[in-house]
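forwarding from the other thread:

> can someone predict this with flavin-adenine dinucleotide?

sure thing
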Amino acid sequence: MSETDFDVVVVGAGPAGSCAALSLAKAGHSVLLVERGPFAGSKNMYGGVVYPRILDALIPNWWEEAPIQRWVTRRQTMVMTPTQSLTIDYRSDTWAKPPYNGATAYRPDFDFWLAGKAEAAGAQLICSTTVTGLLRDGHGRTIGVRTDRPDGDITARLVIACDGVNSFLAKEAGLYRRDVDANSFTLGVKETIALPTDVINERFGVRGREGADIEIIGCTGDVNGGGFIYTNLDTIGVGVVLKLSKLGAQRQRPEEIIANLKAHPSVAPLVEGGEVKEYSAHLIPEAGYDMIPTLAGDGLLIAGDAAGLCLAAGIWLEGVNFALASGMYAGDAAADALRSDDTSAAGLAGYRQRLERTFVLKDHAKLRHIPHLVLGDRLQQEYPQMVANIVERMFRVDNPRPKPGIRRILTQERRHAGIRWRDLAKDTWTAMRGFG
Amino acid sequence: MNRWPEISFEDRMSTVHFDVHERAHITVDGDSCHGCTTKACVVACPANLFVPTSDGGIVFNYEQCFECGTCYMVCNVEGAITWTYPDGGHGVVFRRT
Amino acid sequence: MAATASSSGGHERLRTGARAVRAVIVTCQKWVALGAADADSAGHNAADQRFGGTSAADQAALEWALRLGAARSEAVTVIALGPDEASKALRDAAAAGADRLLRVDSSTSIDSVDVAAAITSALQSLGAADVSFIVCGDYSLDRGSGSVPAFLAAMLGMAMALGAVGIDLADGTDVEVLRRLDGGRRERLRLHDSGVISVEGSTATLRRASLSGVLASKAKQIEMHTPTRSIDHVARATTMSTYRPRARQLAPPVGGNPLARLHALTSATHRSTHGETVVLDPQMAARRIVEALTVWGYLDGESGPAADAPTR
Ligand SMILES: Cc1cc2nc3c(=O)[nH]c(=O)nc-3n(C[C@H](O)[C@H](O)[C@H](O)COP(=O)(O)OP(=O)(O)OC[C@H]3O[C@@H](n4cnc5c(N)ncnc54)[C@H](O)[C@@H]3O)c2cc1C
Ligand code: SF4
Ligand code: SF4
């Protein structure tokens, strides 16, 4: 085999790329990590909560040094209609102690820190450098990347593409499914809103470094999607995710949908008086298991959002942990393949096996139908109203009329919302099978 | 629902930092847009960069772009949008996201 | 006009500064932290190398230094002033082709005089006699007064051509600098073989570093210099405010009718008779300018000592 510049080139210093580079550097390989932003994390935004437990293996005691804002101890799921809301509120003290559960963090902090870890382990990080394509030999095998710098070609025995949701590299290599289109993605828009720390503590019922995380369904009007509110130390993140195929067709702009969410009677008291510090937007691969592309080619692996490995199933919005894990497993599989000197697609098969053995593909397979259910028209446009009405009638005191029986309320409200038994039963079954 | 926005769109965008490069990383072929009935980009672009003209075309400015990819995903007219990332080091820079 | 007087006088002076060994071109970069005001209560996002940088003018200066270095086959040394984060600016400069990196340790918020003194002492540690050209940006990212290059020239006894809007490298020995003057006029200065130049950001775009340049810059050594303090022989700005020329006193106009008096008062129908061309050495030229300004009523008699400023 001819000499290459590096053993591995990793494209994109997001969580997937930095983990891949970190695990390879630890295994003693020469790794180049290429990032197009001026620093790692500069191009990245998300809702606001990371679940970094998977880092235990790579960075023991990561919680002592990661740039965390708050530890999530309170999680709420809210179902809303324009005038009503129903909240399930869970809190746990154990989530405030090591090894913790979820944490809020800014991506320009978190990704920067993680890329620094990869660098410290021996990976070379170069920023402000956009990879514009793959270098391939006559047999279609990937042998490096082309960057937008002068004399910018870099050869490697293996390329790991962690270039995020738009992954032009995975598309160039023909790894994507042909049916992946606007239906498979949502647009996330977010406002970072400044509020004093004690005001946040008071409004969200948390103290010290504890934080709250609220996921919302039924807040996005005619555009299917969902909303979220996350607490940082002295800001909160308020945003919505919107199904692309609907967004284009409905005449409502993303920032108007956030504005409506902020004006909702259940949300307004939480956000009142805050100053918008930053507005941001990013796509999410949202179709789950059904959009996952071919994960390996000759001399090429893909991980994180580039591989569609983001779990966006209503009450879950997890992508960073899947990116961390898939990046790490890609690094491990790559190290194996380099050792046995076989970086063909077959030699890299260990990558998919690792994902299948772990939560990465197990969760995705299990929740396979959930994204379609959660973003489907019934759950988006009809169920929130029905559920809210049912609860309203359970709690409403209509004296002198006696309280109606619950079964009766259910039947009436289902009929009132125009939902057929058959659909309700089917959706319940899908939900049970997925979540159960 | 119609209400006054709490901040103007210009103020909203002024919270975002951009290191603009002289090369336009996205270009829109206005001619292709004349026949487009959806004009999906106009509603969907979170940075509101697609402005319809009275004759059915589109005026596009690349400077304040999030590089999100929404526009090329929602556009159904082949060749209307040419989309690349900005040159390394340029474009949007997030701070607290 | 006055400016013509100074430039023709200065031109002679600029041509005289020949020196024996020339090996180094220096460019100064001021690294400035941005976003410090955004620091949150956890200290995240505070001033660090992510949110900071150098001005377009400093980058243009680096580009000119690199071109000058190539034209004269001389090494290019980059001096950055600032805290540890300023190393980022130095590495970026190395990636673009700078040969030697020097960081002067300091907080970024010090007086221009001290900055210049710090750089001068750094240059002396390098061997100031070897320095041919010094190229600076005409303003830093935090928009100071832009006076560092002038102080540098004074302290090093070098010729200066400041606020360049264009540079012509000619043959690399002589450098022609196009300067902006008041009233849309331009001045062309020729620096022979040495001098301090400051450039506007629009004069050049810093070249994009090659991939191999970026990789090599990671291992490049950064030399450190801790400035020796105490500079007391120079004039120091005490207060800073915008300059408001005082009202000019004129004798009552003479004339038979209001229109004639108005003409006399404004000299609207006469061409200005101010301005002369003289050839003088710099000291005398400066005195002549002050004299003329005083006679024309732009300066009070007492502000004469300006001519004695330590320009040597
Ligand atoms: C609105 C929103 C809310 C979200 N909320 C959450 C949440 O609360 N919790 C959670 O866990 N996940 C959340 N996610 C998902 C999560 O952000 C992603 O799944 C995760 O960032 C994927 O990581 P990655 O490393 O695969 O890709 P990215 O984080 O996108 O990183 C890709 C990197 O590659 C770089 N890059 C791309 N192309 C090139 C190129 N050609 N050359 C060089 N560099 C390149 C990019 O600059 C970037 O740094 C959310 C996403 C969105 C949009
Ligand atoms: S860019 Fe595409 S979606 Fe937008 S108007 Fe043109 S053709 Fe239509
Ligand atoms: S990439 Fe996103 S922000 Fe940029 S023009 Fe397209 S839709 Fe707008």
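Chain B has one domain: 9-91. thats all i got for now
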